Amino acid sequence: MGPLIGVTTYFKDIDDKKENEEDARRRGFLSPEASVSYVYYTRKIEYAGGTPVSIPWFCQDASVRTLAERLDGILFSGGEDIDPQYYGEPVAGSEVIVPERDAQELRLFEAFYQARKPILGICRGIQLMNVFFRGSLIQDILSEEKGYLDHSQSDEGGFEPAHSVLVEKGTKLVSLIGEEVRVNSLHHQAARKIGEGLVVAAQSEDGLVEALERPEYPFMLGVQWHPERLSGEPHSNIFEAFVEECAKFKNL
Fold it and tell me: Is the pLDDT of residue 33 over 90?
């Protein structure tokens, strides 16, 4: 078995699918809410040799501590917007917010950070990383006056590249994917003020932050795009490097 890697999950109100409370209880839910994970994350981890473990968004503090002790690394997945209160702003463009998920994932980030275990953030995950280190976010890209492109890709599922990103020389990321790569784009927010100790590892053609790293940390990488939905190299290199780092903690 490969290294155990946690994957955070999305909040899902199953009433979105027209299921009622009775249906939810029949299927084992206590309320019409679910904790879901897209298979793309877990498949990429498995393909790279890891063993994915889905983490519900409603874990208690004791479970958070246990997860940080027993898992070898963590992937913070995409999903809902982070409450702007965490970076000192009122809601001004943020959309769906799940307070329970925000609170838990910040606790998870702290626990894995203190354990110095590998951390990979994707989409919301890079934003969580930035907020954790006291950075801030652009709450809605198209509301900005700087004329950014629409980064909410309209094709089915974001399985095709939408634009290029330029990767900074000397970063961990450039050693994995090269100096320029085509990526998909499924977000309406992005990092604004960069968190303490983080460096910008890549930007899009219009100047938005597309990747962040923490150089002094063994492995901490956040990307704004969704490499789990893109096939082949160089995107698979991100997961292979992440799983390789997680393997160093296996059986410790």
Answer: no
